[in-house]
Specification:
Layout (H helix, E strand, L loop, with lengths): L1 H21 L4 E6 L2 E5 L5 E6 L2 E6 L2 E2 L9 E7 L4 E7 L9 E6 L3 E7 L10 E4 L6 H7 L2 E7 L5 E7 L3 H12 L3
Antiparallel strand pairs: 1-2, 2-3, 3-6, 4-5, 4-12, 6-7, 7-10, 8-9, 8-11, 9-10, 11-12
Length: 180
């Protein structure tokens, strides 16, 4: 009887040990309004914000009842070449090979492309194309960022992010996370 549970217990032990060895735990280091700075024990950092409003449209009509509440936008810096990258996580699978758009206060529109995952054809991640250092100034002086991208079911996902607190979060991010 005891031997029946041994493989299960051993499997769970190995699983939890592997999760701790592989993954990094990020914690909220500082939060300003709608943006937060996350940091790991190895001083890897990023900024993140949750969408203030999520909507889905099909044939120009809003789809009601589609439970979408956990869309995020992330900003990270590559310390080697001092470049920034911005990415998007949708709470609904995205259509692959279809371009979307990120609009910063109707002042600049950048392309959004869903990332292809080898394990899963229903990707929820997208990268913002052509994001440059100069675009940070638009985010610093802006008030709203909007992502529009097509979902796997053909509906248009429209997620609006507030830029309130971005400036303070970004300044803290630069001072805390870029220490070598």
């Amino acid at each position: 009887m005891k031997l029946k549970f041994f493989p299960i217990i051993l499997g769970l032990f190995i699983y939890f040990l592997a999760q701790n060895a592989i993954g990094q735990d990020f914690i909220v280091k500082k939060k300003y309004r709608d943006w937060a700075v996350y940091s790991s024990a190895s001083n890897d950092c990023f900024l993140a914000s949750k969408a203030k409003k999520t909507a889905s449209y099909f044939n120009s009509r809003e789809v009601l009842g589609k439970n979408r509440q956990n869309s995020f936008i992330y900003l990270a810096v590559n310390k080697n070449n001092r470049s920034y990258s911005i990415s998007y996580f949708s709470d609904y699978p995205l259509k692959i090979n279809i371009s979307g758009a990120m609009n910063i206060d109707n002042r600049k529109v950048l392309g959004v492309t869903a990332l292809i995952s080898s394990e899963n054809s229903k990707s929820k991640h997208a990268i913002i194309n052509g994001f440059m250092k100069e675009d940070i100034n638009l985010l610093l002086g802006g008030s709203r960022l909007t992502i529009e991208i097509q979902s796997i079911d053909g509906s248009l996902l429209v997620d609006r992010f507030s830029l309130m607190g971005f400036t303070k979060s970004f300044n803290y991010f630069l001072s805390y996370c870029n220490k070598n």
